[in-house]
Design goal:
The complex is a heterodimer of chains A (426) and B (251). By secondary structure, chain A is mainly α. Chain A is built from 15 helices and four strands. In chain A, β1, α3 and β2 form a beta-alpha-beta unit. The longest helix of chain A is centred in the middle third of the chain and has 35 residues. Chain B has 251 residues and is of the alpha/beta class. Helix content of chain B is 37%, strand content 22%. Chain B is built from nine helices and ten strands. In chain B, α3 crosses α4 and α5 packs parallel to α6. Classes of the chains: A mainly alpha (426), B alpha/beta (251). Chains A and B meet through α1, α8 and α9 of A and α2, β6 and α3 of B.
């Protein structure tokens, strides 16, 4: 134990003497969390909180055009620019304005679109109350459907595109239903010779209630910060492999490792000292990243990070991730031949493990084979453990399997490193 | 009956993976206690391989290696307790001070607090580094680093000290201090195994030498006796060139 404390003290002195390295070690993860969370904020919020810039040209000037404009504006998802705000807006330059990238979407409601709907409704009602064959669709009177043209910026994400198309379909159906309802009730009133007192109810008879599925009592609401901070924290913690491998390789290149190997049993102690110190570094990084989520990001409009009620479970999870990251770093530093090798392989391998682990893209949308592979990424175990605590309201028992996997991973890494240096000898 | 050697090497052979030529080819050596033994030879002759096997950094292929009667394979931990190493590299932590480095290595060797303090003060003073004990090593000159490198290897007072070119690249004053201190250590009972390319230094410093080339021991004995046995040789350097040739050695 005395030797371990001596080695940890030595590693600590080396670490604190490198002021620039220290700043990078603690400030970079904070900056990473800050930047990535703010950038990804929009992706996670999607259309709940982000507005899409839409150009809207109403050549119809009737119920459909007015209804769509009203619907787009009242939804809160879209920032709508009409001819009122942009005088140069017309059908000819709509394509150019969207292509320039200032607007993501352009919508043109063609002239006479509402009239076409009315004609169709009228002919269908007339047909329904006549003696003619109603099943013959050619007699429904719709020769040319009313047209809405939508221009998309080629860089727009497919999810945004789908959302706009669904919203347009919804607004159009609403207007069509209202017109059909009006013609139908008018015709019935006419047939019965009574006054039409029926009003169209756009709310419908079914309400949709949104709830997050969880079998635990939790006060945590899923939001962009709850998703992003743990994800990027896991990623940043694994990046301690770069200074850690550098430390190991520098020690080896300087020849100090020869002295350590000459002292009975001291090499394993030295290895464990590095693991211990870098676990502490990781935990400090983690706390700093939580502080960013709790106090700094809210200053820039993000929700406040909630740590949930299981603080011991959270600390255990962070400790397990730190252990895995330090173990991976020791293994890599021992096996890598040069610092360049370790730094480039280390950085790329963490990025790959992060991608596989679901930090860039959620695992559930990956192809089947990648979903299977992702189960072997330690970053996935860390991420899922944190999600259990940050989003699902889970406790210590819920993260036990994730902690177990991370601890086993770390032990395996340290054993590989120890065996490798024993076989390699020098 | 001659005294038991502190180092016994018999038929030692080592071939590195991927090489067809053995780095050590069936060498046998015996170093008596209290000797200053010089292992001399051109680059790639097998000096570092021999020291690496003796220190337990490399596995041998064949042969017997014993240190103080202990088997290098079976009793390596016991051997490690009685040997010290001064590698050619400055094997120290440059961002620490001399006192921090020495405290670290001393504690790792299990030196008790009082003994560690005594040894640290003693060695720093002898090597003229007392006033620089709290300065970072990265600010030191080459000579200062070499002297401290030596202290780190002898702090725990080993019975056998391996020195791999301990005076390379240092000024005359530092070299003199290092060699004088090594002689003092030897007088107190430390056996010294030393490699160098400085033949004049080896001739004055070593009580016995072995010249190794292409993994084989060419000659072995007292430097003065070896010089006198070979006609036309006036120094260890002329003997060395006679035995190893004048052809350049790159590895």
């Amino acid at each position: 134990m005395g030797r371990l404390i001596t080695s940890v003290h030595k590693e600590f002195l080396i670490l604190i003497r490198d002021k620039a390295g220290l700043a990078i070690l603690f400030l970079m993860p904070m900056f990473l969390i800050f930047v990535m969370t703010l950038i990804q904020d929009n992706t996670f919020r999607e259309l709940d909180e982000t507005q899409i810039n839409i150009l809207f040209l109403d050549l119809d000037g009737d119920s459909l055009g007015v209804g769509i404009e009203k619907g787009l504006k009242s939804s809160g998802f879209f920032a709508v620019t009409t001819k009122k705000e942009n005088a140069e807006l017309n059908q000819e330059n709509m394509n150019r304005l969207v292509a320039e990238g200032k607007f993501q979407i352009g919508i043109v409601v063609a002239a006479g679109a509402t009239e076409t709907i009315r004609n169709k409704a009228r002919s269908v009602i007339e047909l329904a109350f006549s003696d003619e064959d109603f099943s013959d669709e050619s007699k429904h009177g719709l020769k040319e459907p009313g047209k809405i043209i939508v221009y998309f910026d080629p860089v727009i994400k497919n999810s945004y595109k789908q959302t706009v198309m669904m919203a347009l379909q919804n607004f159009t159906n609403n207007v069509e239903s209202k017109i059909n309802f009006q013609y139908f009730t008018d015709e019935i009133s006419n047939q019965l010779s009574v006054e039409n007192k029926l009003m169209f109810d756009s709310e419908g008879g079914v309400s949709i209630e949104e709830q997050y599925a969880t079998d635990k009592l939790t006060e945590t609401l899923p939001n962009s910060v709850q998703h992003n901070v743990p994800a990027w924290a896991v990623f940043a913690m694994f990046f301690i492999i770069i200074p850690l491998t550098g430390n190991i390789i520098k020690e080896r290149d300087s020849g100090s490792v020869l002295r350590l190997k000459l002292i009975p049993g001291s090499y394993l102690v030295s290895m464990m000292a590095k693991v211990s110190l870098y676990i502490v570094v990781c935990l400090i990084q983690f706390v700093l990243m939580l502080i960013v989520g709790m106090y700094i990001l809210p200053m820039f409009g993000s929700p406040v990070l909630s740590l949930g009620s299981h603080k011991i479970a959270l600390a255990s999870m962070a400790l397990a991730v730190a252990l895995a990251a330090a173990g991976y770093g020791v293994m890599l530093g021992t096996i890598a031949g040069t610092h360049d090798q370790a730094a480039s392989f280390g950085a790329v391998s963490v990025i790959i493990l992060a991608a596989l682990g679901g930090i860039w893209v959620p695992v559930f949308i990956m192809p089947g084979i990648m979903q299977t592979i992702s189960m072997f990424s330690p970053l996935n175990w860390g991420l899922e453990g944190f999600y259990e605590l940050f989003l699902r309201g889970g406790g210590f028992l819920d993260i036990l399997s994730h902690i177990g996997l991370l601890v086993i991973f770390s032990i395996v890494m340290i054993l590989i490193a120890y065996q490798y240096q024993r076989i390699k000898r020098i | 009956m001659p005294p038991k050697p502190i180092i016994r090497i018999e038929n030692l052979t080592k071939t590195y993976r991927g090489s067809e030529i053995p780095a050590l080819n069936n060498i046998s050596l015996s170093v008596p206690k209290n000797e200053i033994f010089g292992l001399l030879g051109p680059n790639g002759a097998g000096k570092t391989t021999t020291i690496s096997i003796l220190c337990g950094f490399l596995r041998k292929d064949f042969g017997i290696v014993e240190i103080n009667g202990l088997s290098i394979e079976k009793e390596s931990n016991e051997i490690k307790k009685i040997i010290g190493l001064v590698p050619q590299e400055i094997a120290l932590y440059e961002t620490l001070t001399p006192i921090e480095n020495l405290r670290f290595f001393g504690k790792m060797y299990g030196l008790e607090k009082d003994r560690l303090k005594r040894r640290t003060d003693e060695c720093l003073s002898l090597m003229g580094l007392d006033k620089s004990r709290n300065k970072l090593i990265k600010t030191f000159s080459g000579g200062m680093k070499r002297r401290l490198n030596l202290i780190a290897g002898i702090l725990h007072e080993p019975k056998i000290l391996f020195l791999d070119e301990p005076t390379v690249g240092v000024d005359v004053q530092s070299r003199n201090v290092i060699l004088e201190h090594l002689k003092e250590l030897n007088k107190k009972g430390t056996t010294i195994i030393y490699t160098s390319h400085y033949m004049e230094e080896a001739e004055q410093f070593c009580s016995s030498i072995a010249i190794i080339d292409s993994g084989e021991i060419i000659v072995n004995g007292n430097p003065a006796e070896l010089i006198s046995k070979n006609q036309g040789c006036t120094s260890l350097e002329t003997l060395y060139l006679l035995l190893t040739g004048r052809k350049l050695r790159d590895n």
